Amino acid sequence: MAQDRFIPQPITKVLKENYMPYAMSVIVSRAIPEIDGFKPSHRKLLYTMYKMGLLTGNRTKSANVVGQTMKLNPHGDGAIYETMVRLSRGNESLLTPFIDSKGNFGKVYSRDMAYAASRYTEVKLDSFCSELFTDIDCDAVDFMDNYDGTLKEPMLLPTRFPNILVSANLGIAVGMASSLCGFNLNEVCNTAVAYLKNPDCDLMETLTAPDFPTGGELILEPEQMAEIYRTGRGSFKVRAKWKYLKKENIIEITEIPYTATIEAIIDKTTDLIKQGKVREISDMRDESGLSGLKIAIDLKRGADPDKLMMKLMKMTPLMDAFGCNFNVLIDGTPRVMGVRQILEEWTKWRAGCIRRRVCFDLEKKREKLHLLLGLKKILLDIDRAIAIIRDTAEESQVVPNLMDGFDIDEVQAEYVAEIRLRNINKEHILKRTQETDELEQEIARLEDILANEGKIKNIIIGELREINKKYKTPRRTAIVSGDQVQHYDEADQIEDYPVRLFLTQEGYFKKITPQSLRMSGDHKLKEGDQIAVAAESSNKAEVVFITDKAQAYKCRLHEFDDGKASLLGDYLPQKLQMSEGERAIFMLLPGDYQGYLLYVYQNGKAAKIPVKSFDTKSNRRRLTGAYSDKAPLAAILYLKEDGEAALYSSDNRMLLVDTADVAPKAVRSSQGAVVMALKKNKIVTKELLAEQVHVSNLARYRAKTLPAPGAILKDEDAPEPQLTLE
């Protein structure tokens, strides 16, 4: 049987043995950058290009580089090439690109601008990459085997500057992610120098704010930015740069947020135009080309460009937030760190690289000094050295005889024995032996560096200042103070005037000005339809439509066009994109969200829900769970304040209830409590406010305690037929 092939296992064991190794592999080996600022895919690609001689040589086909990188990277050619595209100058993803590219590499600010195939493009390493590989051959970093053990590759690149803060990096792992914004190279170098001199320095004095290759304007909130610097988490907003050409009546957008694309901006704006929320635009197009990004917006006559752009900044990705999550791998462990912590870890790591480089140089110079000291010993008697070599019968005895003759070790003797005949002259030997003094001084200097942490710091500072001077990179993202930014307030742009509102039983809604209503005749309605609710309000007000599917639709009245009584009006199921078969049964004008909604169910239960529960912080149009759907709804009443309400049952009874006796419920979908006690198979049919009830003796129907069955209606107290929820 099929079930016999399955072996039951505890979920904890499966997670431990299968899920966790995979998760850690993604975290450590793929998605999260390390302290050098690179993910493994970046590092493998750049190192391959370095070994191909592309730091100083001419460009080669991208396909050639991709093929060579596959020796280190077991991924497919598509993934490798995509990594190359992002690192290239042509794509404009990075402030300091690492790859000098030729051909079409797409653009980071365009979703649909596809890069050309690797066979059509050419690449080499940018000269800036010399700051990555200067120490690569000096034992500054550890090397490891590639995936199949045939080659060696560096575990990290010995970057001479804090690339982790310069290059923007996004990564999604399993159970965690990383989002590092880029900073200006010069500002980072200055900040690193300031930190090395004083670890408690004010970082924002030199590192004002992030910088992005797409430019734009960063809205700086000092407290917000300080929190990001401290914790490594938070967000800030970046908006587009634009200018208005008065003569042509055109807005030109030339820089956009790093997180946005041209297509996303145009698509969102188009949707707003279709919805009638933006009426000032006659045309919008992408005019990006060789000169860079450009979005052109043709304005209608009389449109205010400043107000329009404020609206678009709020409603489209022309202003977008960048979420920071400075998650970095430190010794194989992911850590979310602030900027100061990142600088601390980078300087510690860079100091280790320099120490290893110095040790490497020291060992080389010690080896050379050792050889020259042996050579110095034969300087005074070259002829004897020649005689020893000449008189030695067997070649294997040359080195031992030189060792015995001059009291030198095997390494020194081997060096002397390998000297070419033309170099056995006093001039050559004197020049070589004179180097010993210089070597001894250099060895002493290197030993002093290793013994003095301050000198290692000075070396780092010197390198940072050299890079700072060598690579001038002006800021691309302008900084705008948050208190100087004017934000779009939709309410200020809406014209306010009185309106009359009408909701029909079939779900048609009309918004009519009093003037238009006075000039109109009777309402135009579908056959069999009639007005269910009528109210007065203003064009700026909010309205909530409650449906028979226990949902509420919240919107503003200005979103509806002014109509006429002679028109059917807006069909709400279509206008509000309701579910199939759904219809509006109640219209609420919440105003300041005071008061209650009294829901009465056919089973005799009633729930008093604060209108405040509909005051949501988000701009959601559809609110689920407007009321309980456990029992059919009989009626809804809006109570500005507590009073009396009359409940009618199918067995001709009426109950007058003081709504203060009904306890309010915090949750909209609460079923409430039993108010009207019903006989078997009887239901509540409707509900009215006390002032809508015309009876001779209210006390007859008033309940002393709840629940209560109510009293049988007298003939003279029977109500006129009323509209119901059915």
SSE blueprint:
Blueprint: H1 11-31, H2 40-51, E1 60-61, H3 62-69, H4 77-87, E2 99-102, E3 122-125, H5 130-133, E4 143-145, E5 152-154, H6 163-166, E6 169-172, E7 177-180, H7 185-197, H8 203-206, E8 217-220, H9 222-231, E9 233-239, E10 241-245, E11 250-255, H10 262-274, E12 281-286, E13 295-299, H11 305-315, E14 319-325, E15 327-330, E16 333-336, H12 339-377, H13 382-391, H14 398-406, H15 410-417, H16 426-451, H17 453-470, E17 478-481, H18 490-493, E18 498-504, E19 508-512, H19 514-519, E20 531-538, E21 542-547, E22 551-556, E23 570-571, H20 572-575, E24 584-588, E25 596-601, E26 605-610, E27 622-624, E28 633-639, E29 644-649, E30 653-658, E31 673-674, E32 684-689, E33 711-712
Helix pairs in contact: 2-3, 3-4, 7-17, 12-15, 12-16, 12-17, 14-15, 16-17
Plain-language structure description:
With 726 residues, the protein is α+β, with helices and mostly antiparallel strands. The chain has 4 domains: 32-159, Topoisomerase II, domain 5 (Alpha-Beta Complex); 241-317, 2-Layer Sandwich (Gyrase A, domain 2); 343-470, Topoisomerase, domain 3, CATH 1.10.268; 490-717, Neuraminidase (6 Propeller). The chain has 20 helices and 33 strands. It has a 4-stranded mixed β-sheet with strand order 14-9-8-17. Strand 29 (644-649) and strand 30 form a beta hairpin. Helix 2 (40-51) crosses helix 3, helix 12 packs antiparallel against helix 16 (426-451) and helix 16 crosses helix 17 (453-470). The longest helix has 39 residues, at 339-377. The radius of gyration is 40 Å and the shape is elongated. The two termini are 55 Å apart.
